[in-house]
Design a protein that fits this description.
CATH topology: Rossmann fold
Shape: globular
CATH architecture: 3-Layer(aba) Sandwich
Structural class: alpha/beta
Strand content: 15-25%
CATH superfamily: P-loop containing nucleotide triphosphate hydrolases
Number of helices: 8
Largest sheet: 7 strands, parallel
Strand order of the largest sheet: 3-2-4-1-5-6-7
Helix content: 25-40%
């Protein structure tokens, strides 16, 4: 019975996610779902990305947290539309939660919508929200074993950003090992090694993301 209930929940969510995706496609909007554990650097990455792409790409953001509006406030300071979802305990965002924010956006005025999911390496990967792709951030401080411990997150993601590489001199870890372990789980991952603190490696991420937006708007 429990398995049947879980299956029903996921199937209902997938239906809503497909409806969301149809709406996004109708508006020529590229959407990506940004995932990570708490503190890996999702909001810092968004702040950097907004600054770098301002003037070229019109962005909106949906912020997901269990409580508080701190991240949404940081994004709002960048002058772009942002909506906060507080799940009240749920460990992920789903298609229905995303749909509830639509009245707050003028999708025709946007090129890119980013869903910053709840910080969690398990649940967010299971739920579609209507995105074009999932991207995840992994901090080097989390260790090289995370792909083998949380494979679904890496398997579902199109992009992996290995963040906080400025800390590598102070840690007993190997960037090459991070890559190897992630690619064992998903050989098709596009990987960027970055530091949201120093900006190292982020230009390649910006260029890649702009290419996705250009391709999506032309489709």
């Amino acid at each position: 019975m429990k398995i049947s209930v879980v299956k029903d929940i996921l199937e209902a969510n997938d239906r809503i996610a497909r409806e969301n995706r149809d709406l996004f496609d109708d508006n020529g909007l590229v959407v990506f779902n940004l995932m990570s554990s708490p503190g890996a650097g999702k909001t810092s990455l968004l702040e950097r990305t907004i600054d770098a792409m301002k003037g070229d790409v019109k962005m909106g953001v949906i912020e997901g947290d269990i409580q508080s509006t701190q991240d949404a406030e940081r994004i709002a300071e960048k002058g772009i539309p942002v909506v906060q979802i507080n799940t009240g305990g749920a460990c992920h965002l789903d298609g229905n939660m995303i749909r509830d924010t639509f009245k707050e956006f003028d999708f025709a005025a946007l090129d890119l919508l980013v869903v910053e999911n709840v910080g969690n390496l398990v649940c967010p990967a299971e739920f579609q929200v209507g995105e074009d792709f999932k991207a995840m951030i992994l901090s080097v401080t989390e260790g090289e074993d995370k792909p083998s411990k949380y494979p679904l997150m890496f398997r579902e993601s199109k992009v992996l950003l290995i963040n906080k590489i400025d800390l590598i001199p102070y840690l007993d870890i190997s960037l090459e090992r991070f890559r190897e372990e992630a690619l064992k789980v998903n050989p098709d991952l596009t990987i960027f090694e970055v530091s949201c603190k120093t900006g190292e490696g982020l230009d390649a991420w910006y260029a890649w993301l702009k290419a996705q937006v250009k391709a999506g708007s032309a489709a």
